[in-house]
Write a structure and sequence with these properties.
Strand content: under 5%
Mean pLDDT: 75
Strand order of the largest sheet: 1-2
Number of strands: 4
Shape: elongated
Distance between the termini: 191 Å
Number of helices: 19
Order of helices and strands: HHHHEEHHHHHHHHHHHHHEEHH
Radius of gyration: 52 Å
């Protein structure tokens, strides 16, 4: 009997591998699983611990791998969202710029648009409507508007108003003002900048504003009708006209008194029509102004350097109708302003220009001498002479001296007329 040859370690391992291959050949379909018996010789404890460690290691590796993948995926999603957001913003900006460009192009080419053009807005196709060019506003001057007033039509209107409001003269005068407001409504503010005119013009130019543009027939028809209205109604109408003018003045100045709120400019009705009807009333019935002088002198709403040119214009209109009323109003309402501390050089010069205009009028000497005493009052009262003396001695400046010399010469001329 042959002795059994001892099997070496290498042969034993090779046999185990072949057996394992043959056992798994049918189930693995040709794939082979390599088994190392050397590792199986380790103790169960060591094997179990190694198995646990390997399991933990695989699990940790898998966890680390997937967390990295998920982290990169989150970063990619964030980058994609950020790119989408930027793309949406850029698209919105481009769409807005495109709409602005199209709007500008449509406004520039509105005359060249065709009925068949189409525009796409939010995916909808709409036909583009042709735009008509706005007609240019035709500038109408005061003279052009005044020339269109028909004297016969005005006369017929006044007859109807007088019949409808027979005993209500004030309402008749208001309707009279409405007629001229409609006649001068085409005249815009820029065509009659009365505030600028009153600041820059001389008294000689202001005296004819704006009646120099009214036709003679219209003026005569109006003044003949005004002459038949009551003095009380005319007095109320004159004050209403002044209040309207001063309200328009506040609008031009930009702020109301006691407020910082910006106010819109007034309509052209207050600028043209009110001046026209007020001037005609003052020229035809200047005596009415005498009864209003105390109110104009004492009421604060008629005081101030900004309102002085309007008051001066009112007295100039009254002096056109009656020189005596003009000088009387000047002495009682304007002369005290000259010596006031608040009076500036420009206002003082305008006041003296009006006095010189009154005294240089045709036949002024005979008219003023005959009207030296009016309704129990002197044309130049002693208080005016006292004011002249206080203003003359002492004179605070050379300019004041020149002004006082002009006033003194006027009073000397008046006294010479009276002595003659």
């Amino acid at each position: 009997m042959d002795e059994e040859r001892p099997i070496s370690f290498e042969e034993e391992e090779k046999a185990a591998i072949n057996a394992s291959i043959n056992a798994n050949k049918s189930s693995d379909h040709g794939w082979q699983t390599v088994i190392y018996p050397k590792r199986q010789r380790k103790t169960s404890k060591t094997s179990g611990s190694n198995t646990d460690l390997r399991a933990n290691g695989v699990s940790n590796n898998k966890s680390n791998v997937f967390s990295s993948v998920e982290l990169h995926a989150d970063e990619r999603r964030r980058r994609n969202l950020e790119l989408q957001r930027k793309a949406a913003e850029e698209a919105a900006e481009e769409a807005s710029a495109s709409r602005i460009a199209r709007s500008k192009q449509r406004s520039d080419d509105e005359d060249e648009s065709d009925d068949g053009d189409e525009i796409v807005d939010n995916g909808k196709v709409e036909s583009k409507k042709p735009k008509q060019k706005k007609p240019k506003r035709i500038k109408v001057t005061v003279a052009e508007a005044a020339s269109k007033i028909d004297a016969e039509n005005l006369e017929q209107f006044l007859i109807e108003v007088s019949a409808s409001y027979e005993s209500q003269h004030y309402i008749q005068l208001m309707r009279f003002a409405d007629y001229f407001a409609r006649a001068f409504s085409p005249v815009k503010n820029a065509e009659f900048p009365w505030t600028k005119m009153f600041k820059e013009s001389t008294v000689a130019k202001l005296a004819d504003v704006p009646l120099n543009d009214v036709p003679e027939a219209v003026y005569k028809t109006s003044t003949d009708w005004i002459n038949k209205r009551s003095s009380d109604a005319l007095g109320s109408f004159i004050l209403w006209s002044l209040d309207t003018i001063f309200a328009d003045l506040a609008n031009h100045q930009g702020v109301t008194k006691g407020s910082k709120k910006v106010v819109q400019q007034g309509s052209s009705k207050a600028q043209v029509a009110i001046f026209v009807v007020l001037a005609m009333a003052l020229r035809r019935k200047p005596d009415v102004l005498i009864g209003l002088l105390p109110k104009l002198r004492e009421d604060p709403k008629y005081q101030g350097q900004d309102k002085l040119p309007v008051i001066l214009w009112v007295i100039a209109q009254a002096s056109q109708g009656d020189l005596v009323v003009g000088l009387y109003s000047w002495v009682h309402n304007l002369f005290p302003v000259i010596s006031a501390k608040s009076c500036n050089t420009q206002s003082r010069d305008l006041i003296l220009q009006l006095l010189e205009r009154i005294l240089s009028a045709p036949k002024a000497r005979s008219i003023l001498l005959n009207g030296a005493v009016r309704k129990g009052e002197r044309l130049v009262p002693p208080s005016a002479l006292e004011l002249l003396i206080r203003a003359t001695f002492p004179a605070p400046s050379a300019r004041i001296k020149v002004s006082i010399m002009r006033i003194t010469s006027v009073f000397v001329i008046h006294l010479q007329w009276k002595a003659a």
